[in-house]
Amino acid sequence: MAGAAKILVVGPMGVGKTTLIGTVSEIKPLSTEATMSQAGARLDTKVRPSKTTTTVALDFGRITLGGELVLYLFGTPGQQRFLPAWKDLARGALGALALVDTRDLEASFDAIGHLEDLDVPFSVAVNAFPDSTQHNEDDLRSALDLLPHTPLVICDAREHKSSVQALISLVSHLIETLTEAS
């Protein structure tokens, strides 16, 4: 497959969207990280004490797969209050990679629900944090209420190969979906 595709990287705050895009991007990623403010603290649940910044508009990166397919990666802000920007970023997207954290699966429900509402095809990547509990695939699918055909992979957003494999899983799913629709 050759060409270019707009891909969203979505998920709740602190799940690793900025990290994944920075890990795989072949260009210097654009990031709109800002220091978490006192005003925002009233609205946003802090993920962990060490997290002091958050994406306030988008993250952007680019990766070429197989030498011919360019993916333009758009990372969305994780907070509900940024949903209007999130919807704008979804325009023209071929698909999305939804990152989830097993330490707080419930936080991922909104992002997955928004993708379903916008009819954006997606796959799910469980970001394997060092202190997260591992779950079997059936339990994860059930907890996230995923359809049987929705790809589910485990990745480490800090590792290039692992993150690329998550994107390849999404692209394979998108190709299958487009082929079946033809």
Automatic annotation (TrEMBL):
Q: In the UniProt record, does the keyword Cell cycle occur?
A: no
Pfam families, sorted: ATP_bind_1
UniProt KW keywords: GTP-binding, Hydrolase, Nucleotide-binding
Q: What taxonomic classification does the UniProt entry list for its organism?
A: Bacteria, Bacillati, Actinomycetota, Actinomycetes, Kitasatosporales
**Does the keyword GTP-binding belong to this entry?**
yes
User: InterPro entries, alphabetically?
Assistant: Gliding_Motility_GTPase, Gpn, P-loop_NTPase
What is the protein name given in its UniProt record?
A: ATP/GTP-binding protein
Entry similarity comment: Belongs to the GPN-loop GTPase family.
CDD domains recorded: Ras_like_GTPase
Q: Which organism is it from?
A: Streptomyces endocoffeicus
